[in-house]
Protein 1
Amino acid sequence: MDAGVIPFHTPGHKQGIGMERAFRDFVGDNVLAIDLTQIRGLDDLLQPEGPLVEAQELAADAFGAEHTYFLINGSTSGNQCMMMTALNPGEKIAIPRNSHKSAMGGLIMSGGYPVWMKPEVDEDLHMDHTVTPETVRATMVEHPDIKAVYVVSPTYYGVAADLVGIAAVAHEYGVPLLVDEAWGPHFHFHPALPASAMEAGADMCINSTHKMLGSLSQTAMLHVQGTRIKLDRLKAVYKLFLSTSPNLVLVASLDVARRQMALDGPALLSRTIEIANDTRRRLNDIPNVYCFGEELEGRPGVFDLDPTKVTITVKRLGYTGYEAEEILRRRYNVQCELADLFNTLALFTIGTTPDAADELVYGVRELSREDRPVDIFSPSGVLDARIKRGTYKLPRIPPLRILPREAFLARTEFVPFKKSAGRICAEVITPYPPGIPVISPGEEITREIISYLELEKKAGVRMQGPYDGDLKQIRVVVE
Ligand SMILES: Cc1ncc(COP(=O)(O)O)c(C=O)c1O
């Protein structure tokens, strides 16, 4: 940026002069001064030739990839880029049923044919873990025409898959392994963390740098190695997805997050892991509170664990994870990352201080002392009944009648849910937890699915995805 050059170019706020004063004062002039795009002397993320080539090469080097691409619309766009690169319309991809919803976006955009894989479900913790190499192999044997294997590792709760084993199966069948490693951008920088997807031999992966490292929200990276991914195709897709006006504040934050990790990553992460492990120990000392750790390794779908994720299982306190999260926020000023029926998840990163950890432990300890009759699980107790009945077990994945893309783009109508058997679903319906879609676009609505979801509704389970959150109506394809 040339100081003093008179700006007749975008962005319209002209380094803050044209911006609402209160906001300008709030964010500060420095942020606005570097909010510049596409002017002479600055590089272009879509066609980098100067500093952005160097920044991405340095990132590739730091994260153990051959090529790295900066993303400014999160791992969401990374999932879309991976699918669009690896698949042509109608081509099959092996994909876990519990993938993030942006993977469905990638399927809709690419026209890919999902061959769903069941993740391992942990009945104790009521959460799903990862898919195993055995599941991937069985899927490949059944569908030898699969063109790519896609997995999520680690999970939101920090459970990592056997990526070396999965890569070996994918490569034996001559197809690339794509990994949604949104939650693992720190893995490459510390020996106590699970192997990163690149280390494990994946061909392409995405990292939500903003989730676990020091870059700004929306920033992420896509890493590639080897020869199974066509780089020319990836570059074309990348250009299709990226704004022609990338925000340089975001881009710069990716570069500094890389620099920070390359220079100080191991030391910063050692401290983070120590604080997280110490917190886990202290929380486990609180009666009726459980935070899983190494003892979980070896369970199906649990190959390795990220210690920086502290999952606080509160069911024996008689609270749901949602209630615990709410109480911790309201009474103890502690905001966790996520809650589900049984758990509240605390995220430890290089920004977590020992004082913050103390506050979390204090809040959970106080919560455990509250006079709460154990066994009351929800106001109605129905959730508990549901779990005892074993209805937690998901129904069978219904037959795929048309591709997700076709269902998404088709003419649709709303019909009463109870009478929708035999119709083709045009939306995703995900009871939460466990967060695994029961039906997705293009699949036939079966009677089994209707009765399962009706039960879930009665139990007060939240449904993610449908237009009608009460699921009285469902959007189906007009045939
Ligand atoms: C597994 C997984 N993949 C992808 C994403 C999307 O990431 P982003 O928020 O960076 O777009 C998320 C977001 O939570 C996620 O959990």
Protein 2
Amino acid sequence: MANAAVSAGNTNGEVSRREFLFYIWGASIALFAAESAGLLIWFLIPKFREGEFGGAFTFPIDILPDINAEPANFAEGRFWLVNLDTTNADGQERMFQAQDENDPIKGVAAIYKVCTHLGCIYSWIPVNNRFECPCHGSKYRLDGRRIESPAPRTLDRFKIEALTDDKTTVLAESELVDDFYQPLPLPDGTAFLRIDTGAKKTGPSPELLCSFTGNCP
Ligand code: FES
């Protein structure tokens, strides 16, 4: 008789105690699963703070090297900062315009310190006026373009923003051409630079510079 009463209750659209507990249990499981997924995503998404690799670095403009001068080394950010201008006579032994480059190369670039061949850390070699990798001998011009292989491509670059002295107003940012950050000419009023090491672009693979000078190994 009791079962008959419950069945009768269900057919009348009423929710039995058993069904009610079942719904509560299901809702609890769903809530737990959603919370777990949220926590997992929160842990998996990388979070970088200002001033650590993977995050942004903000510097006053006076840290910039002179035009075509030797690069400034930022070890914590794993990048070199360079100030390029192929129209300027200063430092042309370090930064020159190649035969296949129609437009002047002008602006600031932040270059990733890892060789594009197999990932060694290369160095700036002052007597040779170029970057050289100790592992297999790849060489790069001041802006990161390959001089000699086996590096397969130009050194990677990070995004740069030019900021006013309030550090928040962005006057200009690195332009992307063929998905690669171009040197950023700094607008008047630039007081700070922000280099975002979380925004890296892979270098292209133009012809080796040594092929123009005929000294490729
Ligand atoms: S890792 Fe740099 S040349 Fe091989």
